[in-house]
């Protein structure tokens, strides 16, 4: 590049309003950061999407997986009820989140089969302490739940599952069994 062409290029570069460009870039970066923060707060405290899979909630949840919407406000406000499917931090493994149905609240007497696969049908009754819930999988033959680890502190509930997004043939609100 000759000196004359370089000088012309430098002169054109000097006319570019770099302060305006950097201010616009900073505004866009700030907008992206605010959006990420808003999405995080919404997911953590209002509602989020989760993938549920496994045999413990058959037939309510498919073994191959259902994508569901989770209401996090209900857990924060203490308005989870009997029959609701909830996401819970597993009491026996805090790194794991499980989905189970609430079958008893604080003060409720819950009767359950000790070993559902046994022909003896031995049952046990437990009174759920205040501040706790009793959770069980819909498929009692293949579920680790309160029958193994006892009542679950209410603080471990992350949210209430209320809507199925996928698969599309089962799209809609999730039935809450209130006759438990």
UniProtKB/TrEMBL annotation:
Keywords on record: Hydrolase, Membrane, Mitochondrion, Mitochondrion inner membrane, Protease
Pfam families in the record: Peptidase_S26
Transmembrane segments: none
Gene3D superfamilies tied to this protein: Umud Fragment, subunit A
Any single Gene Ontology cellular-component annotation: mitochondrial inner membrane peptidase complex
Boundaries of every Peptidase S26 domain copy: 30-112, 122-166
Annotated GO biological process: protein processing involved in protein targeting to mitochondrion; signal peptide processing
Cellular compartment(s): Mitochondrion inner membrane
Keyword Mitochondrion included in the entry's annotation: yes
Gene Ontology molecular-function annotations: serine-type endopeptidase activity
Role description: Catalyzes the removal of transit peptides required for the targeting of proteins from the mitochondrial matrix, across the inner membrane, into the inter-membrane space.
Family membership noted in the UniProt record: Belongs to the peptidase S26 family. IMP1 subfamily.
Quaternary structure and interacting proteins, as annotated: Heterodimer of 2 subunits, IMP1A/B and IMP12.
Protein name stated in the entry: Mitochondrial inner membrane protease subunit 1 isoform X2
């Amino acid at each position: 590049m000759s000196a004359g062409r370089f000088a012309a290029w430098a002169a054109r570069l000097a006319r570019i309003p770099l302060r305006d460009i950097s201010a616009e870039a900073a505004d866009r970066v700030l907008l992206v950061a605010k959006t990420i923060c808003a999405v995080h707060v919404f997911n953590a405290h209002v509602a989020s999407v989760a993938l549920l899979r496994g045999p413990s909630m058959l037939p309510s949840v498919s073994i191959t997986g259902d994508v569901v919407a989770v209401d996090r406000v209900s857990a924060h406000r203490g308005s989870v009820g009997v029959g609701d499917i909830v996401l819970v931090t597993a009491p026996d493994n805090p790194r794991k989140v499980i989905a189970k149905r609430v079958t008893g609240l604080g003060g409720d007497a819950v009767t359950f089969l000790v070993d559902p696969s046994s022909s003896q049908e031995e049952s046990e009754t437990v009174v759920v302490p205040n501040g706790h819930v009793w959770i069980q999988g819909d498929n009692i033959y293949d579920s680790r739940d309160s029958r193994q680890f006892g009542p679950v502190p209410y603080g471990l509930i992350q949210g209430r599952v209320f809507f199925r997004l996928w698969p599309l043939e089962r799209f809609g609100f999730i039935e809450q069994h209130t006759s438990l």
